[in-house]
Amino acid sequence: MAMAVAATVVVLGGCGASAPRLDGARRAATAFEETLARADYNAACELLAPQTRQQLEQDSDKPCGPALADEKLPTADPVRTTQMYGRQALLQLDGDTLFLSQFDDGWKIVAAGCRPQPGKPYRCSLKGG
User: Fold this and answer.
1) Which of these, 96, 56, 53, lies nearest to 74 by C-alpha position?
2) CA of 19: how far to CAs of 9, 14, 27, 39, in Å?
3) Which residue from 116, 110, 118 is spatially nearest to 32, judged by alpha carbons?
4) Where are the domains of the chain?
5) Is 124 left (phi over 0), alpha (psi -120 to 50) or beta?
6) Is 121 left (phi over 0), alpha (psi -120 to 50) or beta?
């Protein structure tokens, strides 16, 4: 199921972002990709933003783990670029693009399986409502 993600935040290439915040977003993205590569979908679900997890379960009428497995998200390799603005981040990896938000308990995946569309918002196979 593909959905469009509107990039409503002007994302800057890490301008003003502290090293710990950048590292935190990168660690969250890497952990998410590693859980997908291991097919540990329950662990991957723990890394999703609450609204993203809720939307996934609602759309599929399944618990998060099996629903995430059905998404067949790409597994990606190292983070190539990290762009941040406030508590939002866009991470481009070799093979995928992720949107993250910073919550009180750390960075969480808001959207995954995202592909750019020229002149349009990213199109993501997984995103919150």
Assistant:
1) 96
2) 21, 9, 12, 30
3) 110
4) 3-127
5) beta
6) beta
Going by the DSSP 8-state scheme, the letter that residue 128 receives in this structure is -
At 42, the amino acid letter reads: N
Q: What is the pLDDT of residue 9?
A: 33
Give the residue carrying structure tokens 């977003």: 25
- Provide the token pair at 93: 């990896």
DSSP per-residue string spanning 41-77: HHHHHHTB-HHHHHHHHHHHTS-HHHHHHHH-PPP--
Which residue in this structure is represented by tokens 């629903």?
Answer: 67
Residue with structure tokens 């590569």?
37
**Going by DSSP bridges, is the β-strand pair 79-85/88-93 parallel, antiparallel, or unpaired?**
antiparallel
Q: Note the CATH number of domain 3-127.
A: 3.10.450
Q: What is the pLDDT of residues 57-72, one digit of tens each?
A: 999 999 999 999 999 9
Quote the Cα angle for 63-65-69, to 5°.
120
On whether the CB atoms of residues 24 and 106 are closer than 8 A, the answer is yes
* Of 29 and 18, more confident: 29
